[in-house]
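Proteins fold reproducibly. Take a sample protein:
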Amino acid sequence: MYRLLEKYFSGKCTGEEYQEVVSWIKDPANDLFLGGALKEKWKESLEKDNKIQPDEQLLDSIHHRIALKEQSKRLRHIRIYRQLLVAAAVLIIGLVIHILFFSGPSSPRDIITHNVTVPYGGKTNISLPDGSVVWINSGSTFSYPTEFKDERVVEINGEAFFNVVSMAEPFIVKSSFGEVKVLGTEFNMKAYENEPFETTLVKGAVLFTGKNGKEIKLKPGMQVVVAGGIFESGSVDTELFTSWKEGKLIFKDEPLQNVIARLERWYNVDIELKDDQIKNLKFNGTIEMETFSEVLELIKVTTSIKYSFDRETRVLTIASD
C-alpha cells in the first residue's frame, strides 16, 4: 500500500489503482497509517535544500483528497470520532500546502516561522526540529521556527500538550498570559483568550512566569491556574486535563459553562446558555466516541436541562428544565 500511496501522491495511479487507494482511505482502520504517510510527506518538504516550488501533482492529489471527503459526507453519516481523525490528517495536508506555497525561496541561513492553526472540531500533532512532539487542540494557533538556536522558543494561543526532548538549551512556551520554561518534560498548557490560563505538569519540572514577573515552579501532578490576575497552584488529576489528546474529554464536577466551552471547540458548534443559574451546574462524565446529539442527551439526563436548535441562526440554546 505504501507504493500505491506514493503513486497516488504523485498523480501516477491507474484507474484501477486509484479506486483501490480510495477504498483504502475510506476505511477508518487505516487512519493511523494514513496519518503517518502524510507526516512523512510533510517532513520531506521540510528537508528539501533547493528552492521550493509549487508541486502541481501534489496539489492534484490534495484536490482528490478533498473531493473524497466531500463525497464521503454525501454517501454516509460519519461518527464524530472518525471526523476528528480525518480532520487531523487534513490539517497536516494544509501544513504541507503552507510550506509549499507560502514559505517562498529561502537560503540555508533563513529561519522561517510556521503557524499551525487548528479549527474547531479538529486536533493534530507535529514534531518540532529538536524532536519534541506537540499535540494541538481545537481552536488553537501554534507557532514555531524551522530551526532552534540558543533557545527553543515556541508560542501557543489555545491549548497544546508538549512532550519536550531534554537538551541543554531551554524550551520556552510563550502565551499572552506569560511563559513556561523547561528543559525536558511533559505538560499541558491551556491559554485561550477570555478563559483562565492553566499549565498542568505530568512529568519533569517547569517554571511558569506571569506577565507581572511572578514565578511558580511546578512538580509532577501539579497545576497552576491564572484567572483575573490571581495565581493558584495545587495537585490535580492530570488525566482530566490531558486526555483530549487521546480523543477523550473527562469531566469531574465541572461547571456546565466550562463543559460547554470545551464542547463548542470539540464539535465546532455555537452553544448559548440561556439561564445564568445553570452555568454552575456540575457535570461528571467521559466523552469519547459519542455524537453531539448523544452528548446532549447525556448532559440532559445528568443535569436536568432542555435544549433547542435555531436553524436560522444555527445556535443551540440550553436552558433549565
The CA atoms of residues 10 and 57 lie 5 Å apart.
